[in-house]
Fold this protein.
Amino acid sequence: MREDIAGGEAAAVRLAKGAGLGDALAVADPRAWLALDAGVREVDRYRPGHRPRWEHITSLCADPASLDEPRLAIALCHRDGRIRERALRRAAAYPALLPLVVIRAADWAEPVREHARGLLREVLGVDTAVALAPLILLVGRRDRADAAVRLLAEVLRTAPRERLSPLFGHPDRSVRRFAYRVAVEEGLLSPARLASAAARDEDAVVQGLCGEAALGALAEEGADEDVLAPLLGARSPRVRAIGVTALRRAGQPGRAEGFLADRSALVRACARYVVRQYGTDPLPWYRRRCAEADDPELPPGAAIGLAECGERADAGLLWALLAHPSPRVRARAVAGLRALDVTDVPRLLPLLDDPAPGVVREATAALLPSARSLDAGRLTANLAADRPRHVRVAAFRLLDARGGLVRLRTAVALLEDPDDRLRSRAEQSLQGWHATADVPRGAAEVAELLHRSRRLLSDHVLRRRAWEAGLGG
């Protein structure tokens, strides 16, 4: 914010010297106008004698009728509310200064605020509203700025759809949200256009707003491939879920089966809901797919989907998938076993050496509850610097979960590790370490390990940890 105000100060000085608006500031950037508004008062308040001709220019502001466009811009930002109000009387003659009128419509001085709002009501047409929308919405976050936002909505509601296109593609997501909200409320966009927007836009709010609107229109008008196709093919899981839900209303449960193994849990749940609504149990489908353990095209979502609606007896199908050539299938199979609360430590331990990081992460998560029963020596060997990083991280997580002396040894051993992130995690573990009941009281090893970690602990904390370990104060 300090940098923005500094830029506004510089722009104010350039305007005071007679520079045009386009030369003094980035007129297309709403934040540049806010910076100018703050910058004028900053210069005038704190350094009136440090800017060339500033005192002369600010004195001229007392009579805005004598000012040209650049200096009228300064008057519109002046700290004296009476000067700002008089400047507004001439602002209508200078369309380029309308951004400052928008800012004054949220002015803290009521006469200035009301005058600016009246002026906006007079001049705000469709083209002007589209151009000023980013600034109006940015200023709209302030107190007393709701009037301009309401006026913007009123103008956009009566605008032809094609005139709003620049707002639908605006880089500012708050502008897109506002434009689509108005379009949905007024029914300005077709269901196909709404579905396309939901599938294309990267903002979750726009996705949900347009997707739900398209779904509602589909229910009223019936199945339309121009609506279904974008929703079902969207990258966003939320939008795909809306599309799958629409298949129920469209009477196409067969297409929903194709999403039972989607990579998103939300989409899989919606697909199961749709097929169940038409009397089909999805569990046999999952069992058939997971029984094809040698199928290289088996979708990973089938494994976790089986666990989401299956029984513990289905674990046998998932165990077979741990040898699948696809690392994503192996990872989802481990996640499925964990979801079914089926843990066989000896069968999961080899997965800690899997070449795929995703498989190792899932195996680690499954083994964490059993960390205290694992072989600390084997895990410590996996901390070696020549082991793959994901294997080392898994070993650290499991050793750290053991607590006690093992956790202390592990953290101290990694204090000089070349891996910055692993070293940082070890430091955090060490700073949170406390002696537990299984730490030998008064052990020389504990004293040595605490001594090696002294650079991370204050003297007070170090003495406290030593006392906890029975080493005295």
User: Anything to note?
Assistant: The radius of gyration is 33 Å. The chain has a mean pLDDT of 89. Residues 189-280 form one domain. The CA atoms of residues 216 and 361 lie 40 Å apart.
